[in-house]
Known about the structure:
Blueprint: E1 2-4, H1 11-14, E2 23-30, E3 33-40, H2 47-65, H3 73-79, E4 84-87, H4 90-105, H5 115-120, H6 134-143, E5 150-152, E6 157-160, H7 172-186, E7 192-196, E8 199-203, E9 213-215, E10 226-229, E11 233-239, E12 259-266, H8 269-281, H9 284-293, E13 297-304, E14 307-312, H10 314-317, E15 320-321
Parallel strand pairs: 1-10
Antiparallel strand pairs: 1-15, 2-3, 3-7, 4-6, 5-6, 7-8, 8-11, 9-10, 11-12, 12-13, 13-14
Helix pairs in contact: 2-7, 4-8, 7-8, 8-9
Amino acid sequence: MRLAVPLEIDPAALADWRQDVPLARLDGETMGTTWHVCMACPPDLDSAAVEAAIAARLEDVLAQMSHWRADSLLGRFNRAPGGTWFALPDDFAQVMEAALDVAGRSGGAFDPAIGELVNLWGHGPAPWPGPPADAALALARTRGGWQHLAYDRETRRLRQPGGLHLDLSGIAKGFTVDALAAVLRGQGCGHALVEIGGELAGMGMRPDGDPWWVDVETPAGHIAPLRIALHQLAVATSGDYVRGRHTIDPRSGLPVEHAMAVSVLHTQAMLADAWATALSVLEPEPMQALARREELAVRALVRQGGAVEEWISPALAELVCEPA
């Protein structure tokens, strides 16, 4: 077992840490998956109030960014005629700005305007009868693409160019992990582990003084396991080992076949999520170059020449302790 440990402990995280508090667990369903919270409960914490606040926050995010709800803001944007401007609420604007930034930095490997391609491959809200025809893919690629989006940062307005479908599933789940962590802090709980569908964020420490240990998903049996201390860190993984080849390359319109599991550590789950998606789209050599350039902590399992190979980025290698 290899361990990845942050180089420093955040002094602010120790300010309200207590050894004599119980752990409590909350869970539920959202975004077509499950959410889980494990939290160290201060004496005055109202667990029922925390759960209600989490439910309200989840509903708020879904009302804005759900690809599966026709009445969401995203759904209304996708149906709007060309030339329509939408004023974005803070959450949507934050996600959109991050999505456009990662899209630009990754050369379009991450693309928030990939919704029509996602639908054509049967990963959207409506079933699709079999693989899409080449003509349909070509049309979707012409109408989609983040370059067609006009976004005014000052007014936080986004323009529908016409026929473009947003899909924020490669970043919204991570954003929601961060949002639930913020809910917990607002309720007076600064030590917790938050997870939605495999994307995780750890705040502070456990009451026993340990960090929030999580195992990076390692579906290849010959690769040594990697356990991460999520102390003020998040981790997100993109790949095809659970749901099949559902990641679509925005540039070709085709499913990604080489990426088994790409995990990214970051201080924000939102950015870990987006970068994991972008890196999983790229072939190994450009993926590694991008991870190095952006100084990202990455563990990638990719298929090469009939075998699964592991790559650990320099930023992650600094944190990894090999077994004696």
